Amino acid sequence: MNIFDIIGPVMVGPSSSHTAGAVRLGNVACAILGEPVAEAVIGLHGSFAQTGRGHGTDLALVAGLMGWTTDDLRIPQAFAYAQEMGLKYSFKTINAGEAAHPNFVKFHLTGRKGSESQVAGASVGGGRVVISEVDGFSLEFTGEFPTILTLHEDRPGAVAEVTGILSKRGVNIAQMRVFRRNKGGLASMVLETDQPVDDSDIAAVAGLPMIRAVRRINAIS
Amino acid sequence: MALAKLSLEEWIQAAAEQAVSFTDFCVDFQRRELDLTAEEVLARMEAMFAVMEESIAVGLKGPRSKGGLVGGDGQKLQRYLAGKQQSMLGDFIGKAVVYSMAVGEANAAMGRIVAAPTAGSSGVLPAVLFALKEEYGVNSHDLAKALVVAGAIGMVIASRASLAGAAGGCQAECGSAGAMAAGAMVALLGGTPAQVGNAVAITIKNMLGLVCDPVAGLVEVPCVKRNAGAVAQAIVAAEMALAGIESVIPVDEVIDAMESVGQSMHCSLKETAQGGLAVTPTALALTEKIFGKKL
User: Residue A56: which of A26, A95, A101, A30 has the closest Cα?
Assistant: First the structure.
């Protein structure tokens, strides 16, 4: 925490959790998809579903999917812009269970080039967010750091290869965690780094033998 | 996220021992924390003023909120006060209250604001700072320093209690904003470090127990008017502290009391719209009108 977490962020109202946090959830989901969003099916749970419309949560989520920041004055007109940009969006109410955070959203995104992603996460207060699911993997990261997301084979050496190549490239890992579906199957690494990660870093990781896919999420502003 | 507990009393004592103003102490402390120069920190704070000023201007145009429950009251009070020879609020408080409602209304209408410390309580700091600028002729450099003091106070509250209505009720939002504003005003008007602490303590004591019970779950009713109330509380406490009136309970203990009150508060009164004003017959009818269903 620093003083600009207290005096700030600069944001379009009315709610840091239901508006600013919603923009950021859209930002991260769009970054995970890795290309401009063509179609978004957005499932809203709990308080997001119940009071979201009055907080502009729906507008904020779509604004986030277009890559806008929390202080963008166009947020109230996000739907009109989305239509202009050819982004089709729809909302539905979902029940993610008692254990889910009240401000929980699940995106099913299709990109312009046809790639698909499912991303779920929650707005946990003060505009901060936590992503909890990507393409069926349960995981956890905040988007506050530059983040690398891998899909890799769950075999000895996969983690060492990735951390090794990042260390050679001067990227320091602030936090990392490994998640897997089942032993020896597919796994996912979440690496949060101190330095921004560029295309060549991602290409280097993607070139490793046990890596199936790599995605990069820039730190959200 | 658990934060290491900070102590306002320790900072007050350190400033007194170093024989520096609380403002200078806070600016120096924060620039070290951020690894920036003092000028860089103050420049970033001055950038916040531009947003605050814009939010006051937007709110004074009387925009209608997203949920339709608020809008135009800041403008209404401003017009009323402008037509009076004398008002009970007086020039300073009158102006501050008008501005606080304007920012609250701009926020509710999806205008751009500085969350300070939250969006729901974002009217309080701009209100007192711009009233000080216009009524006392305070320059923007000194106002930026006051914002650093306010932020430092907020950090202590965040570390010992909470700034979120969902965790601590409205005392944590408007109460904290009021406390931050009171401390900043005392520091800006030449109060001692101890007087800054007293202003913070008195404000929180007077707002202890305030629940968060938003109608229809929206940041509209009673949030906008509670920003106005917090401004008045902050000014009362600041003037008392500057007069040398002390808080019997030391400031860190007052903040800790706010945390324990927040923990004892029933969850229906912590931003869930399940209690208090939110479940009055009128509120329930409004909720159904806005959302077409019950929450």
Answer: A26
Confidence (pTM): 0.91
3-state secondary structure of B221: coil
The CA-atom distances, in angstroms, between A42 and each of A6, A61, A119, B54, B222 are 30, 9, 10, 33, 30
pLDDT digits (tens, 9 = 90+) for A78-107: 999 999 999 999 999 999 998 888 899 999
Residue window 43-62, chain B: list those with CB within 8 Å of chain A. 44-45, 48, 51
> What pLDDT score does B209 carry?
98
Q: Given a cut of 80, is residue A221 above it in pLDDT?
A: no
A160 touching chain B per CB within 8 A: no
From the list A1, A11, A54, which residue is nearest B158 (CB)? A1
| Domain with B141 in it | 19-291
User: Looking at CA atoms only, how far is residue A213 from chain B in angstroms?
Assistant: 31
- Asked if residue B2 has pLDDT above 70, the reply is no
Res. B294: pLDDT tops 90: no
Domains of chain A are: 3-135 (3.30.1330.90), 147-217 (3.30.70.260)
Q: Chain B, 110-149: which have a CB under 8 Å from a chain A CB?
A: 110-120, 122, 125, 147-148
For residue A14, which residues of chain B lie inside 8 Å, CB to CB?
Answer: 65-66, 107-110, 119-120, 218-220
**Does a structural domain hold residue B6?**
no
The answer to whether the CB atoms of A51 and B291 lie below 8 A apart is yes
* The total number of structural domains that make up chain B: 1
pLDDT in tens, B114-161: 999 999 999 999 999 999 999 999 999 999 999 999 999 999 999 999
Is residue B7 included in any domain, yes or no? no
The answer to whether A144 contacts chain B (CB < 8 Å) is no
pLDDT average, residue stretch A137-162: 93
Of B33, B41, B119, the CB nearest to A15: B119
Residue A36 has pLDDT above 70, yes or no: yes
The answer to whether A15 contacts chain B (CB < 8 Å) is yes
Q: Do A73 and B112 touch (CB under 8 A)?
A: yes
Asked if residue B8 belongs to a domain, the reply is: no
Which CATH number goes with the domain that contains B222?
Answer: 1.10.4100.10
pLDDT digits (tens, 9 = 90+) for B196-205: 999 999 999 9
- Please give the residue of chain A at the shortest CA–CA distance from B112: A12
Nearest CB among A7, A55, A59 relative to B48 is that of A7
